[in-house]
């Protein structure tokens, strides 16, 4: 069973890329962001860490104020570093646990794991190969602003919190350019997908 990492700059369209491949090829899928959100549910290990490190992000209903936390992470590098050091191992362990389950329950399918901060977290050796999705910075900013309803200044801070795309390209095995039309992207996705995986029948 092959495990492939999917990453890319913020606003590059990673989720759309993953959705196309899941509809076309025989793949299991794990989303690191979803794993992280699940670990932040009240009583889970991630929630316990937030409650210990910065409990002012815990609301009265015991849910985490995700909007306030995200904004704080964009503005406070020290807090972002502390939480990354705390949460990345938790998310990594849970992803590995899910992969181990898939190896038993769906051994005939390869696994695609979407990890936005794959390179920043230093997880390159966890995967058979790494695929990077990118767009130019102007498109990325526009997509972030439209998707999250944030200002240009906030979107720029979010982009600066990640590695430069050139550094990520150098550390990836395959690159998808999602800057042009979606049909142009589909041509790239189909070609690379046939190279890596079996198509659905």
Descriptive notes:
This protein is an alpha/beta fold. The chain has one domain (3-196): P-loop containing nucleotide triphosphate hydrolases (Rossmann fold). It has 10 helices and 5 strands. It has helices spanning 14-24, 32-39, 45-53, 66-75, 77-105, 118-121, 137-148, 152-160, 165-170, 182-196; strands at 3-8, 27-31, 110-114, 129-134, 174-177. Strands 2-3-1-4-5 form a 5-stranded parallel β-sheet, with helices on both faces. Helix 1 (14-24) crosses helix 10 and helix 7 crosses helix 8 (152-160). The chain starts with a strand and ends in a 5-residue tail after the last helix. The model has no long low-confidence stretch (mean pLDDT 91).
What's the arrangement of secondary structure elements?
Layout: E1 3-8, H1 14-24, E2 27-31, H2 32-39, H3 45-53, H4 66-75, H5 77-105, E3 110-114, H6 118-121, E4 129-134, H7 137-148, H8 152-160, H9 165-170, E5 174-177, H10 182-196
Parallel strand pairs: 1-3, 1-4, 2-3, 4-5
Helix pairs in contact: 1-10, 2-5, 3-5, 7-8
Domain count: the total is 1
Shape: globular
The largest β sheet comes out as: 5 strands, parallel
Radius of gyration: 17 Å
Based on secondary structure, the structural category is alpha/beta
Tell me roughly what share of residues is in helical segments. 55-70%
CATH class: Alpha Beta
Given as residue ranges, the uncertain stretches (5+ residues, pLDDT < 50) are none
Predict the CATH topology.
Answer: Rossmann fold
Let me know the CATH homologous superfamily.
Answer: P-loop containing nucleotide triphosphate hydrolases
Give the topology string: H per helix, E per strand.
EHEHHHHEHEHHHEH
Strands across the major sheet, in which order?
2-3-1-4-5
Could you give the count of β-strands? 5
Could you give the distance between the termini?
A: 19 Å
Count of separate DSSP helical elements: 10
CATH architecture name: 3-Layer(aba) Sandwich
